[in-house]
Amino acid sequence: MDERTRLLRNVCEPIGANVYFAPEAHQRYTALGLDWASGYFCSRGASLGRPGGLVVTAAFGVFNPALVVPAVERGWAITTPEDILEARYTGAVASLRRLLGEPDETRLRRAVELLLRGLEAADAAGHPLYAGLRSLPFPDDPLGQLWRCCDMVREHRGDSQIAVWTVAGVCPVEIQLMMELVMGIPLKSFSRTRGWSTEEMDAALDGMRNKGWLEGDAFSQTGRDLRERIESDTDDMETPIVDAIGSAFDDLITILRPWASAIYSAGIEGGGYPGGPDAIVALGGRPAP
Questions:
Q1: E strand or H helix at 105, and its extent?
Q2: Integer Cα distance of 106 and 186 in angstroms
């Protein structure tokens, strides 16, 4: 386990992924005529061009194609990759400005410099969403640059983790159910939002028990070891990024940590990111009163 790669994930996640919860982004997708699913799948997938639903399913990893394919078809019948990428970018930056105000530009530029130093060492091979983002024009706005860098860090790790769990013989619905166990939330709750039916999830859970990964509705030791090995192997694939940042890594975390905590503190109801007190404490901060 490389704790640096997980810490980098923790501070970049709310900055990069806040776009998925930002009302500013959803308002722009609605203005294009898109529903939630079409807006999500097409906006995130548009860095790949105009991908079909099965391509988006493969790149995102954990979704049921029965949910993704029709949503992508609806989206591309209404909008273009150029329009939705613009909506995604402007919505993300507007949300960060609302949540963070106007961050100190010197610190912003330093964070972007260090993130880019790490991302230059990131391999694009086998990382489609990261490669797609790298192919886009780099923003001029320092806050937009920060968002793009954090989005790239997030997608690179996500691409790496998909590679790891597929090699381990885990299928999409299984890794999604494992995530619920890791997070300590009720089984079959969040996975339902990924398009999996009760019947599909029940069949997957039975299969996981037969493989020895579960005992009842909890991880067996074998399953716990497997899930941690997936995370650890993902860490190994992300280590070149933090190695390239080098001795300035702690400086980067010091800059990013208060911004990440502010976005976590806002929560979904405040147009932020659903990290909650546990995420803030993990960053070394205190939950909002």
A1: helix 105-119
A2: 43
